[in-house]
Amino acid sequence: MARGTSQSPAGSLIELVTIVAAALGLALGIQAFLVKPFRIPSESMVPTLVVGQRVLVDRVGLRFGEPDRGDVMVFKPPKGADTSTCGDPEKPRGSACSTPTAGESETTFIKRVVGVEGDQLAVKAGRVYIDGERQQEPFIRPSANCDICNQPRAITVPENHVFMMGDNRGHSADSRVWGPVALDSLIGKGFMTYWPPNRIGGL
């Protein structure tokens, strides 16, 4: 009966290092190009997402189409998000910010798409109105009492931009303050939560 050849300790170590390096490379490649994990940093998406919850983000879908209203997106907001600044210094009273500042913030946000290019968008009691019609938003926590919860004067979402809002309408600094988000600044769509175990599910 033929005997198998045993591997030397040095050979085993090289094989282990190779396997670990390959696995790490695969994981980094998946994160860079396919799916990226994201941790919820604030209360802006309550009740849909809570602080510390983990979300998986699809980085591929945006290559084949633009986001729709209702999609939960991870993105880089306009630079004005760092200082809660609108790109239009003469923004009309009673309207949301329609013009983002130039540049892109280094901070990563997660919000929901509530308006796409061409939409005539207004906010009343924390609820979104498109072309004068109140949208069905069963996922939100509405509020009528915050500084940006009532913006009844409609704005037009500009070309190649989307309007983002948090589901926790009274506790979210979003496009109402710093304007629409360029499509090029979108990182990916959140499609499921994987932590904690009792909140695993789709988005």
What does this structure look like?
It is globular and about 75 Å long. The chain has 203 residues and is an alpha+beta fold. Helices cover 14% and strands 29% of the residues. It has helices spanning 9-33, 175-178, and strands at residues 35-39, 54-58, 72-75, 109-116, 120-124, 127-130, 133-134, 151-156, 161-165, 181-182, 186-195, 201-202. The strands form two sheets. Strands 1, 2, 3, 4, 9, 10, 11 and 12 form an eight-stranded antiparallel β-sheet that branches. A four-stranded antiparallel β-sheet has the order 7-6-5-8, with no helix packed on it. The chain has a domain at 61-188: Umud Fragment, subunit A, CATH 2.10.109. Strand 6 and strand 7 (133-134) form a beta hairpin.
Descriptors:
12 strands; alpha+beta; 203 residues; Umud Fragment, subunit A; 14% helix; globular
Give the secondary structure arrangement, pairings included.
Elements: H1 9-33, E1 35-39, E2 54-58, E3 72-75, E4 109-116, E5 120-124, E6 127-130, E7 133-134, E8 151-156, E9 161-165, H2 175-178, E10 181-182, E11 186-195, E12 201-202
Antiparallel strand pairs: 1-2, 2-11, 3-4, 3-11, 4-9, 5-6, 5-8, 6-7, 9-10, 11-12
